Amino acid sequence: MVRPQGLSDRAKLVVGLLSGNAELFLKVKNILEKAFGRVDFESGILDFKHTDYYRKELGDNLKRKFFSFERLLGIKDICKAKLRTVSIERRFSKNGRRTVNIDPGYVDLAKLVLFSTKDYSHRIYLANGIFAEVTLFFKDGAFRAWPWTYPDYKTNEYIAIFNHIRDIYRDQKRG
To answer: What letter would DSSP give residue 139?
Structure first.
């Protein structure tokens, strides 16, 4: 089988955390590192004011943090990471409500893909209740948004984070 140039079967796992309690970020990071290996990028804590979608479940004054992991994973393994993060979310739940939202995905040279348990017109079903969407695409030296890209992922701040993670991945691939 001939692979298109730039396509790899191994990609960089990225995880976004969202919570009203930023103290949970370190606890979740430690669990994620046990599962996926050493973190090689950690964003600062970002304000999340792009939608009220999570307010009822996670509370007010939501914060976001991103991580990427040094060890590259096969795409099928990253899909399985979503199942693992759902389990971690349940560990931190209180009274049947999540206290942290954990969104895994991957960066490769061409795109950022996020995984979800929710179907929508632009998502593709993978397996075990997991869907994938290409959230950002790389063109002319930077990531770009699609019409369906979440509002926060369209911001220059997030794009800069994913461009940086892509640079880390590119350097790893050159290795």
So the answer is: E
Pairing of strands 100-107, 111-116: antiparallel
115: helix, strand or coil: strand
Give the per-residue pLDDT at 60. Answer: 82
What type of residue sits at position 43?
S
- Residues 8 and 108: their CA atoms lie apart, in Å, by 8
- The pLDDT assigned to 107 comes to 97
What span, in angstroms and rounded, lies between the C-alpha atoms of 154 and 147?
10
Which three-class secondary structure string do you get for 50-100?
CCCCCHHHHCCCCEEEEEEEEEEEEHHHHHHHHHHHHHHHHHCCECCECCE
Q: Tell me the backbone φ, ψ of residue 172, rounded to 5 degrees.
A: -65, -45
Q: Is the pLDDT of residue 59 over 90?
A: no
pLDDT in tens, 85-132: 999 999 999 988 899 999 999 999 999 999 877 767 787 777 787 888
